[in-house]
Amino acid sequence: MKWVNVLGGIVGAAALLGLGIILGHFAIPKGTNSQHLQDLDLEILESIMQQLDASRIRENLRELSREPHLASSPQDEALVQLLLQRWRDPESGLDSAEASTYEVLLSFPSREQPNRVAVVSPTGNVLFSCRQSEQNLTGEQGGPDVVPPYAAYAPPGTPQGLLVYANQGTEEDFMKLQAQGIKLEGTIALTRYGGTGRGAKAVNAAKHGVAGVLVYTDPADINDGQSSTNETFPNSWRLPPSGVERGSYYEYFGDPLTPYLPANPSSFRLDPDTVSGFPPIPTQPIGFEDAKILLCQVNVSVYNRLELRNSSNVLGIIRGAVEPDRYVLYGNHRDSWVHGAVDPSSGTAVLLELSRVLGTLLKKGTWRPRRSIVFASWGAEEFGLIGSTEFTEEFFSKLQERAVAYINVDISVFANATLRAQGTPPVQSVIFAASKQIPAPSLGGLSIYDNWIRYFNRSSPVYGLVPSLGSLGAGSDYAPFIHFLGISSMDIAYTYDRSKTSARIYPTYHTAFDTFGYVDKFVDPGFSSHQAVARTAGSVLLRLSDSLFLPLNVSDYGETLRSFLQAAQQNLGVLLEQHSISLVPLVTAVEKFEGAAGALDQRISALQKATPDPLQVRMLNDQLMLLERTFLNPRAFPEERYYSHVLWAPRTGSVATFPGLANACSRAMNTSLGSPAWAEVQRQLSILVVALEGAAATLRPVADF
């Protein structure tokens, strides 16, 4: 991929902040001072909001979800060409568009030997067989391009044994069965989705000698308990009895054979037989209509195979007029398990409409952003965020030096009640600002912000009652950007009214029933929620790409740090004191950060009231952009792959505090004084203190080294 050439011969910013500012100064195109001070044009922003068309999004979705488009399939490649065609259109295209291909390890069921689950007699006679495909209810669930339900990356095998119901397949579930005297060795565990990750169910089962795992979607978890045919799709949005959730059971993300390396032809590859992170025993998903029948002796036949396949990312680029070496990225994955109308095509439909509107203005010569915009369509996300991870591996240094933020819109509409946003604290303010200016669909003048606060809210010690911004895990393509690169990230969607459903996700998730008709009839008739997401995400994108000062509020991190600190003091303080571990250095580090963030806010406010020098603007913006990177420590969590962010790594401890500290305390809890586990607690505390002090130093005036 040659997007470095597309963006022009820009002098690269160095990792050190001071040197980066100097080099960045020379990277800014020379022109008038007014050009250097180009700021967000609210009239253009409003014009863009009005041009985003719900009917066009609807037609995009119809085209995107017409055929199943499993990663690396011919239909997936056809969508690559569709994106390239749209982004190269002479009237509404972007400055450039290119596809890049990686050779990655994927997992597929065998066509010659379909996976099978059967109840057998002691003599081996088949008494009952589970469905090998979902019921063809609308004419879209059959055909050779509909991949049968399977657990991607589960190993082949034909285990046979007594069936044991293991609830959600957590470690606690299996320990409870053992405590009840139930023999698990050689059994087949029937588990339901939820409670723990897909792959973790097989890992937990194998620890207890289980030979194979079945996973089903329980109607109590997805359908509010409704399960009859007249209560489910196609008569409602609920999952029909034959519906089966597909998914990747790989523990990590990225290409399994090239961790930390892009999956280029020349890259070193691990031996597939020694790769970690795959389920250790055969695993197969089934529908709830079959799950309720299974009893006694069960035979599971899994014939999955691993294959090296080509998978492509597509990038569309709009060059910045003033700071072309600063990138605002907006992405979504393209591949789906079957038709994927909700996941992910609802997001791609929004992406195409937003890029059409911006491309049209670009071609007319009426607008060009201050900073460069990079639109991305990621490949093979469903197998473990592969396309986005390979991209971050290949362009690690460039992105760390130059990326302002990453906006992810995967499933744009889960349901049509309210906005739902997740992100790191600095992006809260820009999402709030955008949502306050956009009317909520069909609510008589109520803004998206005002509607959002009705459904999800929290009490902020600084702002009072505000909408809740969720944190980012690893559920979509934002994961490598925040956890691996330390780039401020967010995920934006419309979602449910939680008072009306307990569904853990939209009911037809990863099944053959996630079709255009399902969205058009049940999820978002009229596509007004899709339009609302397009406007919200589009407004955030424009504010990040066009504002003179980056709208990233670093002081909002102070609330998170203070909350984490208070949780540690209240829940861990006494225990730590018993082991002569003091939280005082952490308290001081949090206070230093709060002071530095507040002082930076004041400097920005003063410059906004004056006519700042372009270099001053650049200096401050780089401090805002680089703050998130200061929380990275690649040695903090050696047991985790790609997780380097000391504030957002996975937390296994029960205390809602800094994850490294919480996890270390949880492991040390029942060990003796002076044990290695308590030394790890002290190490994690030191890692935190150094990260927070480094963050505070990054926010201080650059001249004050």
Spatial extent as radius of gyration: 26 Å
Pairing-aware structural class of the strands and helices?
alpha/beta
Oligomeric state, counting identical vs distinct chains: single chain
- Give the N-to-C terminal Cα separation: 38 Å
Query: Main sheet: which strands, in order across?
Result: 1-11-13-12-14-18-15
Unreliable parts: 1-31
| Average of pLDDT | 94
What is the helical fraction, as a range of percent? 25-40%
Cofactor: Zn(2+)
GO molecular function: aminopeptidase activity; metal ion binding; metallopeptidase activity
Transmembrane segments: 6-28
Domain Transferrin receptor-like dimerisation: 581-700
Account of the protein in words:
- By secondary structure, the chain is of the alpha/beta class.
- 38% of the residues lie in helices and 16% in strands.
- It has 23 helices and 18 strands.
- The strands form four sheets. The protein has a seven-stranded mixed β-sheet with strand order 1-11-13-12-14-18-15, sandwiched between helices. A seven-stranded mixed β-sheet has the order 3-2-10-5-6-7-9.
- It starts with a helix and ends in a 6-residue tail after the last helix.
- The N terminus is likely disordered.
Can you summarize this structure?
The chain crosses the membrane at residues 6-28. By secondary structure, the protein is of the alpha/beta class. The protein is built from 23 helices and 18 strands.
